[in-house]
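=== RUN LOG ===
request id: a7f3
mode: sequence -> structure
chains: 1
length: 341
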Amino acid sequence: MKRIIIVALVCFATICSEAQEKTLEIYFIDVEGGQATLFVTPEHQSLLIDTGWPDQDGRDAKRIVAAADLAGLKKIDYVLITHYHDDHVGGVPGLVERIPVGTFIDHGPLYEHCPTCLTGFDAYMKVIQSGEAKRRSVTAGQVLPLREIEARIVSSNGEVLSAPLPGAGAANPFCAKSEIRPADTTENSHSLGLLLSFGRFRVTDLGDLTWDKERALMCPVNRIGTVTLLIVSHHGWYQSSSPAYVDAIHPEVAIMDNGATKGGSLPTVTTLNKIPGLSAMWQIHRSQEAGDQNVPDERIANLSGDSASDRGYYLKVSASRDGSFTVFNPRTGESIAYPAR
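=== RESULT ===
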């Protein structure tokens, strides 16, 4: 009888250990220089950040649904639209045709009335008005209704956090090396920015938030603190990723959702490679502009350009509560593990 009890206890402990080791899964979907990043919690609650481009025979929506299938999802609980440029909101109609969506989250009214902004925003509003999903507009400081993870809005509709988060608030020495740039007047400046925490694992995604708004968020004090993973803003374009932001948050790894000819600006890649303490950067595409400053091939999902032959490989992060994580590249079939820092 004692032996049976011991075996049962060992089995129970194993089950508990496996439950504790369940990971947060993050899929960086290739939408050819747009954005679509899918977060899936251990309980299979889901958050998609942006939906890629319109048209292309539903290419980006299909790639998002393929990632959802890999994650075992039958619906996407929340879709966060960082802003209304067509490489972020354009895939909404195609997405809801292929998979149910619970709630869309956005920054509120359209700010920039450019032709492609109006087209994307109008198509998005038609989806909302059809009743196919709910809509919720959020402000800086709010926390999204997700279990197991804390997803806090740090920028929205042109505003940023008014006070530092717990544990943050130190003077930011990297403000001095970040030039002051004119205020951006596009939708980018109104991007929803997010800090997501899963135990000790922390990741930031600021959408296309621009240099001037990064400074408002990070200077003279760092309102965010440090993070484990940086999702590079604005596809790695030069209008974002100031040292005041990327150096101050001190990420262990950065992932850039660039295209072959969109994003991956050489000045930005150079800045990212100089982040103090950065272990590695990964890219969705090899950047033509970055040249020999691209990361090694094993840390690039797609080596080809934006063409019909592009396989659309994704990158996948599996993160544990203790802050350790792996990055998997399906193109190579290899994973690289990063221990808790």
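=== NOTES ===
The chain is about 25% helix and 25% strand.
Residues 238 and 268 are 6 Å apart (CA to CA).
=== END ===
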